[in-house]
UniProtKB/TrEMBL annotation:
Source organism of the structure: Streptomyces echinatus
TM annotation in the entry: 20-40, 46-67, 79-99, 105-126, 214-238, 250-272, 279-296, 302-324, 336-359, 365-386
InterPro entries (UniProt xref): MFS (IPR011701), MFS_dom (IPR020846), MFS_trans_sf (IPR036259)
One Pfam family matching this protein: MFS_1
Name used for this protein in its record: MFS family permease
Entry's localization field: Cell membrane
Mode of membrane association: Multi-pass membrane protein
Gene3D superfamilies: MFS general substrate transporter like domains
Keyword Membrane: yes
Stretches assigned to the Major facilitator superfamily (MFS) profile domain: 213-412
SUPFAM superfamilies per the UniProt record, alphabetical: MFS general substrate transporter
Amino acid sequence: MPSPYRALFDAPGTKAFSAAGFLGRMPLSMMGIGVVTMVSQLTGRYGLAGALSATVALSAAAIGPQISRLVDRHGQRRVLRPATLVALVAAAGLLLAAHFEWPDWALFVCAAGIGSVPSLGAMIRARWAALYRGTPQLHTAYSFESVVDEVCFIFGPIISIGLSTAWFPEAGPLLAACFLAAGVVWLTAQRATEPEPHPRERSGGGSALRSAGLQVLVATFVATGAIFGAVDVVTVAFADERGHKGAASVVLALYAAGSCAAGVVFGLLRLGGAPERRWLLGVAAMAVSMIPLLLVGNLPLLAVALFVAGLSIAPTMITTMSLIEEHVPRAQLTEGMTWVSTGLAVGVALGSSAAGWVIDAAGARAGYGVPAVSGAVAVAVGFLGYRRLRRPAAGRGGTVEQHGEREVRHLA
């Protein structure tokens, strides 16, 4: 591991909470696809399987920011354990309901309950921020966490699908629930690195989403999430049309691998200039990288195109986390990070649904028009909201130096 990454773990407790966060984050990429695999195997109803997966994602998008707001006020240990218990009980109910063929409404109730799963990625990033706020190491820490996210998305679906198909249908979601329980218990046992809570009387109450800058980030990432959701669905259909459906997991793993590689390199850089410019450039790069997907005609070319497309993901996400630091009060940092994840989750649900409709109507190749259009929408929203991103919240962000008529921000 390069030296800047090694230096991150010099602080006591960092290795332990990072490992706990990795373990607890695996369900993020395992639960949804695991539910689809389980339900489709047990019932043969792909429509029901997809609807349940979407219910989990949308429920998490609605509940997640509220859990994170409570975490900011009361601390991670007091909130994460009961929230996780609710999610685990709901997951157990879903497994039983699917296995014993309970009514569909019971499946949907349990799927909605799984949405109380906390955003472990936001919790870990908040711990890094508490340790390294105001230093260049925070940029490296955010880069490292983006790499961890991509590693989860490379291996999580493979593990979940593999267990459910090779062992028994419920195995994938069951292991995801075990990872969640172990990760949360391990993380919340580490009190020394837990960020200080900010009770209502000290933080002033209200939602972090009142921040104009955060609104721009969340709206843009709804469109960005639609890119991700559509690419996943269309790639599976594209591979299926060419008689190699199993190759879709490898192709999508290369998409995540491109992002992972870019995240590692980006974490080693010390870039000057305004972060909102880099962010907008990253969003534009993601949009442009979708255009070649409309032109590919075979799986090898698709794999190359998706790897290249993935190169813009992690740097954009890393810069997004830095912008949240500038636009959200410190007492609402965890909630602010979770709102971006919520935008992504909503976008994934919308993109996958739209892509499925286009595939049924015009075929898989036409389906790549959905991420292309979504990318254009993301760029448009980013441009329209750019002025808001240039105005950090009072007292936030790094130092601002006058350089002629230009302001150069050095990120905290």
